[in-house]
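Encode chain A's predicted structure.
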Amino acid sequence: MTSVDTLLPLAQSLADAKGWDDFTRTLMLSGKALAPLPEDARNEKNAVEGCESPVWIAFSQTEVSVMAYSPSKVIRGVLAVLLEKANALTKQQRRNFDYEQYLSRCQLERYLSQSRGNGIKSVIAKLKAL
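Encoded structure for chain A:
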């Protein structure tokens, strides 16, 4: 396994969770690690289409990182896990990275409904396009 494939702390904490309750609690706590996307960046240009809950994602030149926001605590947790990894990669690595496999390795895909899973695919597509 290369360093690109390594689970980062938020993903590892999900992978180590015991049972649905522990997983859900850990996921929601992970969302607190997400740096909030500024209000003015929560606009139509940064909106992710196809999500059950509103989601905005953008590259911040100021922070030199990808930032995101959703009012949903569960989705904020998923975004935190995705962005923790995305922000550890170069732009080229981010475009080529297998986020679905990463989410599978930290058990996330097991706990997402089909509609949320479809929204996360839209988030991943937007991440790769940034």
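DSSP finds seven helices and two strands in the chain.
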